[in-house]
């Protein structure tokens, strides 16, 4: 096994005992990175094998008692290795890649789960993680229940769009939703058509405000004003970091939008914007609820 210079001797010694991939569920020590992956492993009944998680993974509640290896895009090999994992299960986008390579070089089995922001992508993700864990039957059950929940929400959305078309006389009464994320150094970012928020917006039968083939783009006031979103989709942590909803809506990029003026905002757990997973229907339901409110904010 190649040792990295910075790795403390005690950790390297622990690794020599644990780094080989282990087949037995009882011996697995998994670090999960990215909320969708953490939540899937638990939903599939393998939470007992998890020894660590990333900062944004805080559901189901027991994961808060596990060591935190840092933000999913800024992992350090040292932090992860201190937990002597046999496996790292990470969502696509986790990294940096150099850290994942270091972990592999140290003998950890690193599995990166694709994040394809569509319903098919979600179902594929469930199946993939279930297969990795040897829990295929649980995977099929979970996929069935997600399919059912999301189909029920799609039916509600289709009905309300049809009603809206009838009353507005337009062909496409779907409201326009702008996904806004922020947490990293780049400031506020708007969700393009390849993002997770765009998938949630589509599942809620609404229209993504920014028709750009990107995941996120820096948010300029011009592009947002031109998109004229009826509704905003944001994370609870962004609202908190802004000092509250009033302060967030008062930011120059958002203040003049129809959504901010009417205070039509779907606020969801930030974890639900970081990838599709077992709780995706919660975010879609919140968006559906806000769509059911009138532009005056009345139900
Ligand atoms: C490809 C670039 C990135 C994308 C697409 C991205 C995306 C996201 C998303 C969707 C969220 C959750 C929603 C929210 O809280 O608004 C988030 C949260 C966050 N991001 Fe990033 N991010 C990126 C890069 C970074 C970088 C480079 C850092 C800093 C090292 C960073 C730090 C954070 C933090 C601290 C949070 C809040 C974490 C939490 O409360 O769980 N992000 N990011």
Keywords, please?
single chain; four-stranded parallel sheet; alpha/beta; 299 residues; Rossmann fold; 2 domains; 13 helices; binds protoporphyrin IX containing FE; 43% helix; six-stranded mixed sheet; globular
What's the short story on this structure?
This protein is an alpha/beta fold and 299 residues long. The protein contains 13 helices and ten strands. 43% of the residues lie in helices and 14% in strands.
Describe this structure in words.
The protein is globular. Residues 1-23 have low confidence and may be disordered. It folds into 2 domains: 9-113, Nitrogenase molybdenum iron protein domain (Rossmann fold), CATH 3.40.50; 140-297, Nitrogenase molybdenum iron protein domain (Rossmann fold, 3-Layer(aba) Sandwich), CATH 3.40.50. Helix content is 43%, strand content 14%. By secondary structure, it is of the alpha/beta class. The strands form 2 sheets. Strands 5, 6, 7, 8, 9 and 10 form a 6-stranded mixed beta sheet that branches. The chain has a 4-stranded parallel beta sheet with strand order 2-1-3-4, with helices on both faces.
**What would you call the shape?**
globular
Bound ligands, each once? protoporphyrin IX containing FE
Work out the helicity level: 40-55%
Which range does the strand content fall in?
A: 5-15%
Distinct helical segment count? 13
CATH class category name of the largest domain: Alpha Beta
Report Rg. Answer: 21 Å
Low-confidence stretches at least 5 residues in length (pLDDT < 50)?
1-23
Whole-number mean pLDDT: 88
Number of strands: 10
Known CATH architecture of the largest domain: 3-Layer(aba) Sandwich
Multimerization status: single chain
Which fold name fills CATH's third level, the topology of the largest domain? Answer: Rossmann fold
* Count of spatially separate domains: 2
Distance between the termini: 62 Å
Largest sheet: 6 strands, mixed
What would you give as the CATH superfamily of the largest domain?
A: Nitrogenase molybdenum iron protein domain
Q: Structural class, from secondary structure content?
A: alpha/beta
What is the ordering of alpha helices and beta strands?
Answer: HEHEHEHEHHEEHEEHEHHHHEH
């Amino acid at each position: 096994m190649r040792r990295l210079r910075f790795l403390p001797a005690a950790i390297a010694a622990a690794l020599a005992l644990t780094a080989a991939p282990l087949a037995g569920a009882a011996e697995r020590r998994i670090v999960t990175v990215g909320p969708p992956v953490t939540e899937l492993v638990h939903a599939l009944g393998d939470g007992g094998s998890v020894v660590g998680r990333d900062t944004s993974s805080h559901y189901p509640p027991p994961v808060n008692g596990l060591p935190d290896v840092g933000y999913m895009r800024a992992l350090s090999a040292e932090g992860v290795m201190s937990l002597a994992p046999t496996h790292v299960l990470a969502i696509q986008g986790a990294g940096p890649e150099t850290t994942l390579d270091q972990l592999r070089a140290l003998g950890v089995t690193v599995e990166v789960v694709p994040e394809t922001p569509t319903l098919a992508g979600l179902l594929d993700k469930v199946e993939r993680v279930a297969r990795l864990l040897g829990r295929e039957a649980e995977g099929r059950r979970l996929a069935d229940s997600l399919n059912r929940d999301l189909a029920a929400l799609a039916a509600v959305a289709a009905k309300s769009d049809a009603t809206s078309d009838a009353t507005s006389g337009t062909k496409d009464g779907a409201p326009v939703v702008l996904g806004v994320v922020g947490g990293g150094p780049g400031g506020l970012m708007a969700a393009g058509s390849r993002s997770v928020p765009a998938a949630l917006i589509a599942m809620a039968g609404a229209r993504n405000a920014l028709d750009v083939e990107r995941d996120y783009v820096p948010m300029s006031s011009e592009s947002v004003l031109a998109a004229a979103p009826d509704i905003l989709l944001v994370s609870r942590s962004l609202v908190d970091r802004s000092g509250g909803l009033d302060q967030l809506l008062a930011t120059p990029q958002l203040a003049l939008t129809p959504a901010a003026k009417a205070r039509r905002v779907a606020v969801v757990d930030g974890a639900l914007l970081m990838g599709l997973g077992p709780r995706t229907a919660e975010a879609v339901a919140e968006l559906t609820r806000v769509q059911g409110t009138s532009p005056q904010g009345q139900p």
